[in-house]
Amino acid sequence: MRVFNFAAGPATLPLEVLEQAREELLDWQGSGMSVMEVSHRGKAFVACAEEAEAVLREILGVPASYKVLFLQGSATGQFAAVPMNLTTPESTVDYINTGAWSKKALGEAKRFCKVNVAADEAASNYSTVPEQGALKLTPGAAYVHYTSNETIGGVEFPYVPQTNGVPLVADMSSNILSRPMDVTKYGIVYASAQKNIGPSGLAVVIVREDLLGKARAAMPSILDYKDMAANGSMSNTPPTFGWYLSGLVFKWLKKNGGLKWIEERNRKKAQKLYDAIEGSSFYSNPVAKNCRSLMNVPFTLAKPDLDKQFCSEAKAAGLTNLEGHRSVGGMRASIYNAMPPEGVDALVAFMKEFERRHG
Length: 359
Ligand code: PMP
Hints:
Bound molecules: 4'-deoxy-4'-aminopyridoxal-5'-phosphate
Structural class: alpha/beta
Shape: globular
Helix content: 25-40%
Strand content: 15-25%
Radius of gyration: 21 Å
CATH topology of the largest domain: Aspartate Aminotransferase, domain 2
Largest sheet: 7 strands, mixed
CATH architecture of the largest domain: 3-Layer(aba) Sandwich
Number of strands: 14
Distance between the termini: 30 Å
Strand order of the largest sheet: 2-10-9-8-5-3-4
CATH superfamily of the largest domain: Type I PLP-dependent aspartate aminotransferase-like (Major domain)
Number of helices: 9
Order of helices and strands: EHHEHEHEEEEEEEHHHEEHEEH
Mean pLDDT: 97
Low-confidence stretches: none
CATH class of the largest domain: Alpha Beta
């Protein structure tokens, strides 16, 4: 039986996509093989890869002046690839620190260049985002980096930082494709696949062409954006199944109405859950109201000793992976694109019932 899976990633995928993958698993496009068994350089797979990119470009509105790359090493690989592609050891880069993933990204960048922390939300225990005016940006920085959605803290930027012409780099691992966006505001957007894109193992990187060719000489070619762009992300053998499945997810989004459709659905889902939390004194969410995430909703119980029971009873009711991140405890419901509204309805109903019995 399928459950409602609230995991933060790898996360739930659209049922229709999984069904299609099952349907064509043994005989993909009449090849008599699965997509995992065909050559990545064969006509059929190249067409499948190109179609995935084309649909992604269409739904996200990626201009022709940007390359779209499908890389390995996921977002953590990009924490290193971004500074290696854009800086020298003498360069200064600005990082906005809004929580666990920003911290990891800037920690990795420190291995390669000078990092200025343009804002650090430690004072609010990472429950806020800085205002534009509070950003201490370095004139002439090689880039400004931010995490558009903190997957652990449940903090999402309600605005796109302005950088005075310095390339803006965003880790959008946990909110890419959740709503329309203006790609032209960014130099680089990157995201791990395993939340809103497809299975784990891939990073999608969208990079403005003028930022190609600045990589260091001592650079692994599989992390070199220019090299990968020149080779259609196939300098090496790519994770073909993940690329194929990501393409099915992009087509699922397109077929249903694209990012406007999913934004409306995501807003309604998140609103229902936050309303349930706000409307009770038993549940609470620590995040400032202007930056509550549409994707990851952490919450705590008035009686934390019931956390385990909450999660185990929820699991018995078919609502799984609600445990908060090991670093923060409590609960977290990740409600990415593929979580159907019925999943959130079932969670809200369960929360009400749990409160009635234990509140
Ligand atoms: N950035 C964010 C915002 C994330 O949520 C994650 C994974 N949860 C990562 C980066 C790291 O992704 P990966 O483990 O795929 O490298």
